[in-house]
Amino acid sequence: MPTFSIIIATRNRPQLLRAALASVLSQTEPDREIIIVNDGSDSAHREAYARLLSEAAAGTTLRVFDLLPRPHGHGPSYALNYGVAQAIGDFVGFLDDDDTWTDDAHLERAGRVLLEAAHSRRPIDLYMTNQHAFLKGEPLPRTIWIEDLAAELRARGQVPAANGTFEVTADDLLAANGFCHLNCLIVARSLYERIDGMDEDIRWEGDRDLYYRLIDRAQRMVHHPATIARHNVPDAAVRQSVTTAASSLEKRLCQLRLLDKTVLFASHPAIRAHARRHKALTLKKIAEELARLRQWQTAAFYAREALATGPTLKWLAVTAYCQLRHLLPRRR
């Protein structure tokens, strides 16, 4: 039985998958299997997929699963859950088909950390690393995920273990700038199954929803500050990306659903409080966007919701302004 099962979901992007798959095949850790879930790619791409996967299968444990075609696919959450359901490794990892792992020793290093923890009878069920973001081939300078976490921990006096990892809590992780991207997560398969995996009803930011539930239920979590992946931020002009396929307001509604879920069902008080704060921010962004569209009545509704969730004097004024603009007669 392999230690790692690496799942890559893909749809209509065989050329991008080639680089992603090559980066996993380059890993120095031999104790792993690779699972490709083809989410009903169009017939125009099938030959390219078949050729690529046939070449890659030689000399490695690669399994390919083709989902039944649907007009827009089953979605990443379903595809990843399907892949995990086929996995036999003790730990599962993920890679977007348009991204790459850049550190060939990533899995080998993680394997040593996880084995050491198991031998000490303090098993780890969530291992996290970092990645760099690129837009149109250029690196983004700002912090997006948890790149700043190690520096924050050191500033508080925490010293990494000899293997380079920091043991972290949910409070530590929530204090970071963002959340750990799927490319950088290694999850005990038992934990993934215990939380029922990805929420297949969330079509955008399902990885954030998964992250909140993982850090809520994990028994022991560690962060290794190594940068192990390159994430290619979707270009807003490219319509084939799931991230850019929905309108801005539809994305905000997905955020509200996952944040409401977290407020309702998270067991950790800090996670619930974090979700409430982010719900207020999301409601404010919805109100601002509706105001830009001059939909004053609906903007006033969401401004009131934002004010109730995260009251401030500024949002009291914004709410009053939107309500006033709604009540004023329209200019002819």
From TrEMBL:
Task: Specify the domain of life of the species encoding this protein.
Answer: Bacteria
By its UniProt entry, which InterPro entries does this protein fall under?
Glyco_trans_2-like, Glycosyltransf_2, Nucleotide-diphossugar_trans
- Spell out the Pfam families in the cross-references: Glycos_transf_2
Alphabetized Gene3D superfamilies for the sequence: Spore Coat Polysaccharide Biosynthesis Protein SpsA, Chain A (3.90.550.10)
Residues in domain Glycosyltransferase 2-like?
5-109
Protein name in UniProt = Glycosyltransferase 2-like domain-containing protein
The record lists the lineage as: Bacteria, Pseudomonadati, Pseudomonadota, Gammaproteobacteria, Chromatiales
